[in-house]
From TrEMBL:
<protein>
    <submittedName>
        <fullName>Uncharacterized protein</fullName>
    </submittedName>
</protein>
<dbReference type="InterPro" id="IPR017930">
    <property type="entry name" value="Myb_dom"/>
</dbReference>
<feature type="domain" description="HTH myb-type">
    <location>
        <begin position="66"/>
        <end position="116"/>
    </location>
</feature>
<feature type="compositionally biased region" description="Polar residues">
    <location>
        <begin position="131"/>
        <end position="157"/>
    </location>
</feature>
<dbReference type="InterPro" id="IPR015495">
    <property type="entry name" value="Myb_TF_plants"/>
</dbReference>
<keyword id="KW-0677">Repeat</keyword>
<feature type="domain" description="HTH myb-type">
    <location>
        <begin position="9"/>
        <end position="65"/>
    </location>
</feature>
<keyword id="KW-0238">DNA-binding</keyword>
<dbReference type="InterPro" id="IPR009057">
    <property type="entry name" value="Homeodomain-like_sf"/>
</dbReference>
<feature type="domain" description="Myb-like">
    <location>
        <begin position="62"/>
        <end position="112"/>
    </location>
</feature>
<feature type="region of interest" description="Disordered">
    <location>
        <begin position="123"/>
        <end position="173"/>
    </location>
</feature>
<feature type="domain" description="Myb-like">
    <location>
        <begin position="9"/>
        <end position="61"/>
    </location>
</feature>
<dbReference type="InterPro" id="IPR001005">
    <property type="entry name" value="SANT/Myb"/>
</dbReference>
<keyword id="KW-0539">Nucleus</keyword>
<dbReference type="Pfam" id="PF00249">
    <property type="entry name" value="Myb_DNA-binding"/>
</dbReference>
<feature type="compositionally biased region" description="Low complexity">
    <location>
        <begin position="158"/>
        <end position="172"/>
    </location>
</feature>
Amino acid sequence: MSRKPCCVGEGLKKGAWTTEEDKKLISYIHEHGEGGWRDIPQKAGLKRCGKSCRLRWANYLKPDIKRGEFSYEEEQIIIMLHASRGNKWSVIARHLPKRTDNEVKNYWNTHLKKRLIDQGIDPLTHKPLASNPNPATPRTSEGQDDSNPSNLDEQSQSGSMSPKSLPHSSSSCNLQTIINSDETPRNNGSLSSKKCRFKKLSCTSKLLNKVATKASSIGNILSASMEGSLIRSTTLSPCLNDVFSETSQFQMDEFDPFSHSSEQHITDHMKEDINMDFDLNNSEFDFSQFIEQFSNIEAEEANAIGGYNQELLLSDVSSTSVYEDNMMQNITGWSNYLVDDSDFPYDTNQDFDDKNFI
DNA sequence: AACAGTCTCAACCGCCTCGAG
DNA sequence: TCTCGAGGCGGTTGAGACTGT
């Protein structure tokens, strides 16, 4: 049983929009607002189908759409979120102010996907390709590949920290439980569901505290080690993301600093919990600041909870050298370390509840 | 200058979800 | 509970721009 197309034949125009058509659509929407797309073409005097009008408006004409080059931080966010969510372009776009899902999708397909492949990373799994002909090389802060053939030669010599030497991970914790909580119905407004949601948020925050703290610490060390930073490496992000963004994605999805709609939600449930002081109306949002705060504040809270000793971790990590050349192995190991079951303060086999936390 | 191959991205297509009746 | 339509979403297409020969 197939649905009838929303617009069939009827002399409707297709293809590129003309300036005149754009003007008509903008003028109509300014006057009458969005919505009722089916009727808009007729009322606005356009020979287009409503769906086409909606897409044209949403992806191109809307006044608060940012176009052009993606910043490095935006790229990192796309890669991070794609690693954990896959091709959920609308979800990814929600974390990029003024970017549309279509633009994010296009940018991924035309730029980021190719770059990851060039770096020997599977853009689907965000893991090193099986036949990795070109070991991942981090992009420099200037946005250019910093390929250095000599690194390849050194790679075999620099493996001072193989994954085996890293803290062993049993990695059986079911992070998917948290992740899937994001998949709850949108109209989740009942009292009980709100209570449930709050509990999940609280638990997620605590979990995130832990992971963010570790990620932050590791990032600092890697920064010193490779003259970069945690988020300045496209080779680092995908792997580390397997853990970091999985655990943070629920909170990222719930806490959208760029969405007015989520502002109320933050006020109600999350401000005390994560204590992030973002300017929700700031159109020139600083992604670096976002990520930095995201890690640092969570780290502070983790310490406040008392279930985790950052200094101990730092001493552990500092005692081990991290080389750029064997980074893939290192990061894989650290990723495992991040979800080491033995360090988790709750029973992952049970439903999330505060009582499961130490 | 002309042509072919490649890249980019706006736009389209078809399916899915959700709310209204 | 079912049907229907609007809107949302992800995959795909193709026209135009760009690049190499």
